[in-house]
Design a protein that fits this description.
Strand 5 and strand 6 form a beta hairpin. The N terminus is likely disordered. This protein is α+β, with helices and mostly antiparallel strands and about 290 residues long.
């Protein structure tokens, strides 16, 4: 299976989906993209897998997904999720240092730091947030002069709105959800910290205290892909980060990312990223 990666060709620099709804079988499997993403749930329920954590999806939930964050939505068949989604490049967001204590992207940095991607809005805040989305939809639909600029300005307002949610609320949400995590979250954490090991379906099922068949079924329901593909993607994403941020030799990166050989690493990396490890590393210098 080739990795699904939304990129500049389809979305750059701004894209908006208003009140969309998908059947579970039409959702993308576990994927990443180069853009930040803001998702608002208008109605429906489901599960959202984001960077090793599972979240419930309900009306009034906002999910902020930074670029290159692995994720996958699983709506409930009997209560399909209707959501609006903003995809935007960080390059579009104003970064002039007017106030050293604030930037529009500070909420994205906070989410990256805490690795907590969900906010639940009160009914009053839902009304405000939906007004932002309605205005974006109207601007893009009517296509008046500066409509795209207006949509981007409203995105700034949304980022400001979310930034003003207190850290106390975020911390409280983290604490509450830590008590209600799915048992699979421990498995995701184990995988993340043991990519160099030989991880098998049998080993993971033993860790979870379930049968391999049950584990395989639940894992695929949650992530949309099988264990082997998931491990390959996680190892590839780790290698991608190391290639970009270090000068380690490619063979060493293959080893510490958990690949059993350098040729296997090259094949897998090209399959999921679309270029060779060396080619990807060279692109950072352009």
């Amino acid at each position: 299976m080739k990795t699904i990666k939304k990129n500049a060709d389809s979305l750059f620099p701004f894209s908006f989906v208003y009140k969309g709804s998908k059947e579970p079988q039409n959702e993308l499997p576990t994927h990443i993209h180069d853009f930040h993403e803001i998702i608002y749930v208008h109605k429906g329920t489901g599960t959202f897998f984001i960077n090793n954590t599972l979240y419930d999806m309900n009306k009034g939930d906002v999910f902020l997904i930074p670029n290159d964050t692995i994720h996958h939505a699983v709506p409930n068949q009997d209560d399909l999720v209707t959501s609006s989604v903003i995809f935007f490049s960080p390059a579009l967001i104003q970064s002039i240092p007017i106030d050293e204590n604030f930037s529009y992207l500070s909420i994205i940095e906070k989410i990256k730091k805490h690795k907590h991607y969900k906010m639940s809005l009160s009914e009053k805040k839902q009304v405000t947030f939906e007004q932002f989305l309605n205005t974006i939809e109207k601007e893009l639909r009517e296509k008046q002069t500066g409509s795209l600029h207006a949509a981007i300005l409203i995105t700034h307002q949304i980022l400001l709105f979310l930034s003003r949610l207190s850290i106390e609320q975020i911390d409280k949400t983290i604490m509450e959800e830590n008590y209600n995590r799915f048992w699979m979250n421990e498995i995701f954490a184990f995988i993340d910290h043991n990519l160099q090991r030989n991880i098998s379906l049998t080993l993971l099922a033993e860790k979870a205290h379930v049968s391999p068949a049950h584990f395989s079924r639940v894992f695929k329901e949650i992530t949309g892909i099988g264990v082997t593909v998931y491990l390959s993607k996680k190892r590839t994403y780790k290698a991608k980060e190391l290639l970009w941020n270090t000068d380690y030799p490619v063979a060493h990166i293959a080893e510490i990312s958990g690949f059993d050989s350098t040729p296997h690493f090259y094949r897998t990396f090209k399959k999921f990223v679309g270029t060779t490890p060396s080619g990807y590393r060279k692109s950072r210098l352009k």
